[in-house]
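Reply to dn_fold:

You asked what the input looked like. This is it:
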Amino acid sequence: LERSLEMVIGILGVLKAGGAYVPIDPGYPQDRIDYILSDTGSALVLSQRGLQEKEEFILPEDKVVYIDLTEAFYRAEDSSAIPSYSGSGDLAYVIYTSGTTGLPKGVMVEHQGVINLVFAQQLQLETNSESKVLQFASLVFDASVSEIFSALLLGAELSILPPDIRQDASLLGEYITNHHINIATLPPALLIAIPHAEFSDLETLIVAGESSSSELLRRWRIGRRLINAYGPTEGTVCVSMHQYESGDLNTNIGRPISNTQVYVLDGNGNPVPVGVSGELYIGGAGLSRGYLNRSELTAERFIANPFCTEADKAKGYTRLYKTGDLVRWLSDGNLEYLGRNDDQVKIRGYRIELGEVEHALSGVPGIGQSCVVCRERVTEGGTIKYLVGYYVAEEESTLSKESILSALSGVL
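and this is what came back:
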């Protein structure tokens, strides 16, 4: 689906009917669309007429339901209320993230995780019926979950950003001003590019997706509440938040939100002292079920919680997710983010496994070996990350930069 009213209607319809929704970006390569539909075994595909002509993809017509607002079934079908089919432990959505083997992995999130997120954000962001919330994130990013459900369930206005404005930093700044947006979640790379203005109505800005520079946080803190948010998709969008104040570390990701547990452990699974680096493990109400059809990977990343109490067991908080993120406790009880213990990187909010890109690069005919690394470029606005691919060509290869990028765009 495109960014539209139908997009939100489709999500609410799926959930009301007792299903789980799986967002697919219309711009995805056909191979990725086919893989997600096959992996999920989706019973239905919601789409819009004319979208395939724009993006040139193919859908299984026997499963497609077009939900354009001009469709006759909106007037012809029964309009009475239907009962609630889903409980708190049922599946709400599956969002696919980058995988090391060249194929994305589907994270399964239940209703209780979303509800816990909504009420935690109500406490932290003070969202209410007077709020105007920006819907910026793509549907395939879990940040869209917090934008859509926190706004609608708390009575706020949800402002869906048009696609052309979403990709233009200058137009985005004008949109925030003209629509009196007062709550927005934006990635640091975009904030670097937005021409800074007063934005007098923007009361709360949540920065998420990747690390921010101290300069960027200082600049955007003036005149509003600035929150540095952290959380993997496996923890239902957001695990911790920190309201940034002048002089704070830019890497301070704060304390866990309500009903969320965090542990900083060493290589032997033991808690580390304050100030010592360790891997972050998370548990509690927001923990996802695991990965769809990937039982071995789920068992590897989601482990039994050796610290759970009888009260935890009663609530079902018996598992922990091994994040791969390195953190340390600060003396005031907040967490500081230090980096990764593997090859996963965050670029412009995208969570990328370098192994997936290397897998695709090695699959290009004529390439014998490949390596992908993350580089950084320092600009006036902050540090910008980007990927660089290196390859060893096979003999008599006629590879060019253009041909390689064309091949990669077919799968990534």
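The chain is about 30% helix and 30% strand.
Hope that clears it up.
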